[in-house]
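Quick one, probably user error.
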């Protein structure tokens, strides 16, 4: 099972590679404009009401749509409960080194962090 998850994680990273730069710019804009210290990129394949569209799969003819959001929006819309905010902040990786993704797929919904640099370990 772990091998399958690792394989799907690697596949997702490959599929998102063409959008890495635009995802980094969206996360940076959220932080630079003091919108949030916790940008979250929502990666999905269906219609959702969360975040601001960055990549729309129907327009870009891709498998995934990408929306830019924040911890604050996730809390406001109760995607993350108020009791879990501190826990989330505790595990949130350095946004200068990693992008926080909330991936909604056939496997469910999961938070994952991917390195900003393809050469990062």
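Nope, works fine. Designed sequence:
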């Amino acid at each position: 099972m772990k091998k399958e998850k690792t394989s799907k994680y690697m596949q997702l990273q490959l599929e998102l590679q063409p959008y890495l730069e635009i995802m980094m710019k969206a996360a940076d804009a959220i932080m630079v404009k003091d919108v949030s210290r916790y940008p979250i990129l929502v990666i999905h394949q269906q219609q959702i009401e969360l975040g601001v569209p960055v990549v729309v799969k129907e327009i870009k003819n891709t498998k995934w749509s990408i929306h830019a959001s924040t911890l604050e929006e996730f809390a406001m819309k109760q995607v993350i409960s108020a009791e879990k905010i501190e826990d989330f902040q505790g595990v949130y990786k350095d946004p200068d080194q990693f992008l926080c993704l909330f991936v909604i797929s056939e496997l469910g919904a999961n938070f994952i962090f991917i390195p900003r640099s393809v050469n990062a370990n």
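The helical segments are 2-16, 20-32, 57-60, 71-76, 85-91.
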